[in-house]
Amino acid sequence: MEKLTTFTQTIINVNYKSHPLYNTFLNEWEFKINFQNQIVEELYLFDEDQNIIITHKIEDDLQHKYFKYFKSIGIIDY
User: In 51-67, which positions are buried (b, 16+ CB within 10 angstroms) versus exposed (e)?
Assistant: First the structure.
């Protein structure tokens, strides 16, 4: 889980460092994974009340690469 957290925090740092809920986003996130197509579609960032504040769409050319990475670090057992 540590590798996934570091991976996610890097995405958040690059894209949302200036957002007022930046510190919350570092701890409140979730990925949307499409197992049928073997892709990671989106990253959801939540506020303190578990409301989705931002839906970060993963670029098409990275969606399958992210799926393979998640599988390689043991996050996905597929």
Answer: eebbeeebeeeebeebb
